[in-house]
Amino acid sequence: MYTGILLKTAAVVGSCKGMREKYNIAVVTNDMYTQEDAQFLMRSQALSGDRILGVETGGCPHTAIREDASMNLAAIEQL
């Protein structure tokens, strides 16, 4: 059973497993100082490892989405 912050990531696992055969998808995760969410997705075999990329934002992940998306855009290019 999943608890805490991993509930959101667990929902991503289910979505990936449900869509991966029909769609060409990848996931970029954002964590402050770790790649915990990306590692969780890999351990759960949500997608192949080359379709998951963890971004360490060094600060609030919401800032990396709303104010300066450059790290996420670079991750998308890498995928």
Question: Could you list some keywords that capture this structure?
Answer:
79 residues; alpha+beta; Rossmann fold; two-stranded parallel ribbon; 47% helix; 13% strand; P-loop_NTPase; Urease accessory protein UreG; UreG; GTP-binding; nickel insertion
Helix-strand blueprint:
Elements lengths: L5 H14 L7 E5 L4 H8 L8 E5 L4 H6 L3 H9 L1
Parallel strand pairs: 1-2
Summarize the structure.
The protein is α+β, with helices and mostly antiparallel strands. Helix content is 47%, strand content 13%. GO terms for molecular function: GTP binding; GTPase activity; nickel cation binding.
Number of distinct beta strands: 2
Supply the number of structural domains.
1
The poorly predicted ranges are: none
Helices and strands, in order, run as HEHEHH
CATH uppermost class: Alpha Beta
Strand order in the sheet with the most strands: 1-2
Rg, rounded, reads: 12 Å
* SS strand fraction: 5-15%
Coarse shape: globular
Q: For the residues shown, what is the average pLDDT?
A: 88
Give the CA-CA distance, first to last residue: 30 Å
Helix share, percent: 40-55%
Q: At the third CATH level, what is the topology name?
A: Rossmann fold
Structural classification:
alpha+beta
CATH homologous superfamily descriptor: P-loop containing nucleotide triphosphate hydrolases
Described by strand count, sense and barrel closure, the largest sheet is: 2 strands, parallel
- CATH architecture descriptor text: 3-Layer(aba) Sandwich
Counting DSSP H or I runs of 4 or more residues, the number of helices is 4
